[in-house]
């Protein structure tokens, strides 16, 4: 309760000044994509806190269907410290990278046929400060704690809506995956509190969605029964999971970012992430691994022509990295957001919680457990949901307007592994249809 009071007071403090953000005109061309973009892309920075020393960067993709009425979604990626560009270019956004081995030339972009932006406008936010292209103007502004970052995200939103008033009446949702499950719950609560307090502009909040979300500290306890149930290990051999890809247990255990790029950014020093991933690779070499789009992100976003096209401010962050875990100045204070979910449900907000069922990091059993602890009545009991005649997963709906769904064959970032199924899931839920 004390943390909730602090969050609300902090929100009151940072929302006194609401001014327009500084955003680019519509970006029509980007290097690596042939021809004009067939969707509307905008980027920008929003200064938050009283002095605006925190500059939060975002990518905005307008809905391709009916942007005047379609939902607007704020998307945050986990880590903490992983850029929302990951979601834009490998999960729910309109582009993918062509999956070929990097040969020193600029990576090629292709369209994502299952982009959620076909039916919704999405703001991809780099949060917290120090993530992606977001930066602080002073050393003090370059660090944050979780509650502070969430309050900054809410101030960002109100400023963004001031400069984009045409979207104020659209249904609005908060979304994210992995560690951003913490952000999603807190930010949604803060928006609701601000609306109730009469802050302007009022945000047309309807609910939230979270994928394989970190929710409370004890979730790691479910990794052992998950591993045993999947036939990976006996409980006595838990330490043998070092060779498993924890993001998707059936995939090869490859580094999530190009090792050569990470070392170049750290002056050749081996980072903690390097050591962990290399020791867990076992007998699988990098050359044996299938191409991962994440390996290409840095090569594309650090290109000068690309940064010019995206209107990146020169000299603000140095080299772009997908996940800034090594130098991120961020403290995790809030480790349990189950009470936030309960409170939001009591207020009548709808929610979608989905789990790729082959994720080791946040097993679907842990998500099921905290949802069950909310003790809401089941109105649509456990059943398969179907896409193109095939089981896409299983779902259950509750009286608190919460829907839980597993994504069969999905990993930690389910839309990355099962794009058509996750698009169908999102389209049905956002349209108020049963899965």
User: DSSP helix count?
Assistant: 13
CATH superfamily: Alpha/Beta hydrolase fold, catalytic domain
Known CATH architecture: 3-Layer(aba) Sandwich
Q: Which structural class fits the helix and strand makeup?
A: alpha/beta
CATH topology: Rossmann fold
Give a quick account of the main beta sheet: strands, pairing sense, barrel closure: 12 strands, mixed
Report the CATH C-level class.
Answer: Alpha Beta
Helices and strands, in order, run as HEEEEHEEEEEHEHEHHHHHEHEHEEEHH
Tally of individual domains: 1
Rg for CA atoms: 21 Å
**Mean residue pLDDT:** 83
Poorly predicted regions are 4-18, 259-288
The percentage helix is 25-40%
Shape: globular
Strand content: 15-25%
Looking at this protein, list some descriptive labels.
435 residues; alpha/beta; Rossmann fold; twelve-stranded mixed β-sheet; 13 helices; 29% helix
